[in-house]
Amino acid sequence: MTEQIRTVPTTTHWGTYLARTNGSRLLALDPHPDDPDPTRIGESVADASSGVGRLRTPLVRRGWLEDGPGPADRPGSRRRGDDEYVAVDWDTAASLVADEITRVRAQHGNRAIYGGSYGWGSAGRFHHPQSQVHRFLNLAGGYTRSVDTYSSAAITVILRRVAGGWQTAMDSTPTFEEIAEHGSLVVAFGGLALRNTQVNDGGLGAHLSPGAQRTAARAGVDFVSVSPLRTDAAEFLNATWLPARPGTDVAIMLGLAHEIVAAGRHDQDFLARCTTGWDVFEDYLMGRSDGVAKTAGWAAAISGIDADTLRTLAVRIATERTVISTSYSVQRADHGEQAPWMALTLAALSGSMGRPGGGFGCGLGALHRNGMRLNRVPAASFPQGVNGVADFIPVARISDLLTRPGREFDYDGGRYTYPDIRLVYWVGGNPFHHHQDLNRLAAAWQRPDTVIVHEHFANALARHADIVLPAATFAERTDFAAGREDPFLMAMVAASPPPGDVLTDYEIFARIAEKLGLEEKFTENRTAAEWVDELYERTRKRAATLDVQLPEWAELVERGRVRLPDLDRPEKPYAALRANPEAHPVATPSGRLEIYSTTIAGFGYADCPPHPTWLEPSEWLGSPLAQRFPLALVSGQPERRLHSQFDNGAYSRAGKINGREPVLINPADAAVRGIADGCVVRLFNNRGACLAGAVLSADIRPGVVRLSTGAWYDPLTPGGLDVHGNPNVLTPDHGTSALAQGPSAHTALVQVELWSGPVPDITVFGPMPGPPDRSAQPSSGGPE
Ligand SMILES: Nc1nc2c(c(=O)[nH]1)N[C@H]1C(S)=C(S)[C@@H](COP(=O)(O)OP(=O)(O)OC[C@H]3O[C@@H](n4cnc5c(=O)[nH]c(N)nc54)[C@H](O)[C@@H]3O)O[C@H]1N2
Ligand SMILES: Nc1nc2c(c(=O)[nH]1)N[C@H]1C(S)=C(S)[C@@H](COP(=O)(O)OP(=O)(O)OC[C@H]3O[C@@H](n4cnc5c(=O)[nH]c(N)nc54)[C@H](O)[C@@H]3O)O[C@H]1N2
Ligand SMILES: [Mo]
């Protein structure tokens, strides 16, 4: 019998594909033939989806079944992360979830349910997991939510206060094509790593960003990458590499600004007309207010970049059409608000702000869309309804939330209280990937009464849950997708049915809603297919109002994706501001870019002063702690996957060293530790330890190691050595400041040593821990 192989279109956050299928199983994802720079990330999907780690049936944690809901750190309880799972049927699982929601609502109110459920999930307008879970929980009376993102919390909140908002800054950021045409110099703090442009939230139709970067390079634009890692700028950019100490970007920018101002080269006209508070900042910059002039020499001592290099660069910034860009990494750090604010200030004084091909680069190159023409595909989404609970947390304060009920916290000028969380519901994100200080999270995670998770795989999140509901992947459902600010609309056609008893998130919620008497409200009597039709028709109607004709569904499926015409865009907000600040103010109290913010001054936060300020990070290469932990850890985005997704697949696993996540280490740092290329090493500090596979490379600055995020957390014992290489066992869990309370992942010191013990197996790619399989046990041989 010959297998009938066919292809159907689908899309992911890392590109658009033709899915090859035999009807019962996904065989491969082939990049869409029109993608000029496809990524290989999709090569992990097919084998992982049908592998041993795939969840195929609902599971309940034995301790939770036996003891009932309650904290897992009660005396005598089995802890979450250290227990077995029992298979149940869907009816039982749905009843357990519905009964528990009912109990928690009745006893503690809806604010005791944490449903923030942060994470990227997978593409699709209808099946988008967060839309599903939020609609469901809203119908059930609401939930404590989260605000902002792990990606860009600090930059979002600071720009909202001082620069008219993140979107305004994004809209003002020059594209690579504009830079090619008008620009001369790009100074990128944290670089603009090509590997990060593989990805766009919601999907992307074609990888056009590498080509756009090449255009800028060919046009003769010079790139300067300030970063501990050479490969944070594509080779073809021929970038000048300034291998700065991590966490010192604000000092470098201040040094550059000082040189420009001392030479009288700053754009006094723009500063006077279009900004406020320059005088206060200038007193700080020149040392008049604190006695410390922020000279190039001062910056050199902090950053390790020599003063003459900074002086030469300062002249270029002041005299050429320049973009000052910060990646998101520099704000995912202690005092992360300061670097983007200072970059905005440096751009404001440079002479290039609001001019074509110059100014502030808001995360240029951090994702596919950054530096591309921003489009707004008017795609409809699955309506989420209204949340009946007002409580929220800044997204990265999850461990604080679980351990500090009733305690107050600061956020962006307000004071709020952490609710007492009894139920955690997570769908489409993985806190055991994304959160800092995983050992602290694992302890905090014992506190709630119940944790419910929908997952594809037996990953660390599933292994720390009480009720685990197996969910279909993007390739097992039909939908359509549009990437954020991406010009394409994509069809997603199920390549195969899901395996085993697996259901889509929608079907799971519909079953639970039925038990709660909410089914009709949740489904509105539509099947998933009918919802997709409905949302696609809404999208077509919206597009028609913009004079864009979208094809019928069948034609979209036939073509796989369509490119929408570029919509007319208003003038860039900062260009309009420069032209006429009275007519085109930005959304700040003054209508200007605020280099000094009276609002922030009013908050009185010691860790977020009212103008850009160099504040020593809580740990960095210049701090006393570096005596014990002499290496700075940077944990950027992985080349071979999206975050932790499909780390169990072929392409991601092919990148491992001895089964461990690779850690980049400078040959000089390796030599003094007796570490050779390919060795297994142990990274450790006061928060935790993990194994990793050493890759010796001169591309990393001495004194810095890089371990990508996303290796599935695999502790040998609860809270013990992570044998796989997840950097978040090492990173600190505190807010960037009281202002944004963003994650501080890039602020970490570690030590590294050769691992000479036996190298433990990776278990997290295997099945969930179950009760001992008696059929597989040899008989005891005793009397029957
Ligand atoms: N140390 C350190 N930590 C970091 C960062 C860093 O730079 N350093 N970066 C941070 C950043 S920027 C981000 S955005 C976060 C990312 O953090 P996350 O977005 O939480 O990471 P993902 O691995 O994408 O998690 C998605 C999870 O959802 C599951 N999933 C996917 N699709 C579906 C679906 O349709 N239904 C269901 N039920 N589940 C689904 C996947 O299996 C996976 O477990 O990490 C942050 N963490
Ligand atoms: N392949 C792939 N691409 C992705 C993602 C993915 O998971 N995989 N995730 C996407 C997401 S969700 C996001 S938010 C973006 C994130 O985009 P970013 O946050 O910009 O990306 P990172 O990789 O965390 O960091 C970029 C580089 O910053 C450097 N760096 C770290 N600390 C410092 C510092 O203190 N100073 C300076 N100057 N440099 C520093 C590191 O060398 C690192 O390689 O990436 C997106 N792109
Ligand atoms: Mo992100």
TrEMBL record:
Q: Which GO terms describe its cellular component?
A: outer membrane-bounded periplasmic space
- The ranges of region (Disordered) come to 26-45, 59-81, 765-784
Q: Where is the Molybdopterin oxidoreductase domain?
A: 54-515
Residue span, Molybdopterin dinucleotide-binding domain = 631-748
Give the Molybdopterin oxidoreductase N-terminal domain ranges. Answer: 10-48
Q: Does the keyword Cell membrane apply?
A: no
Question: InterPro entries in the record, alphabetically?
Answer: Asp_de-COase-like_dom_sf (IPR009010), CT_DMSOR/BSOR/TMAOR (IPR041954), Molybdopterin_N (IPR041460), MoPterin_dinucl-bd_dom (IPR006657), Mopterin_OxRdtase (IPR006656), Prok_Mopterin_Oxidored (IPR050612)
The entry lists its GO molecular-function terms as: electron transfer activity; molybdenum ion binding; molybdopterin cofactor binding; oxidoreductase activity
Q: Which cofactor does it need?
A: Mo-bis(molybdopterin guanine dinucleotide)
Compositionally biased spans, kind Basic and acidic residues:
31-40
Name the UniProt key words of this record, in alphabetical order.
Metal-binding, Molybdenum, Oxidoreductase
Top-level lineage group: Bacteria
One of its Pfam families is: Molybdopterin
Q: Is Transferase set as a keyword in this record?
A: no
What is an annotated GO biological process for this record, any one? anaerobic respiration
PANTHER family, alphabetized: TRIMETHYLAMINE-N-OXIDE REDUCTASE (PTHR43742), TRIMETHYLAMINE-N-OXIDE REDUCTASE 2 (PTHR43742:SF10)
Q: Which family does it belong to?
A: Belongs to the prokaryotic molybdopterin-containing oxidoreductase family.
Q: What is this protein called?
A: Biotin/methionine sulfoxide reductase
Q: Which organism is it from?
A: Nakamurella panacisegetis
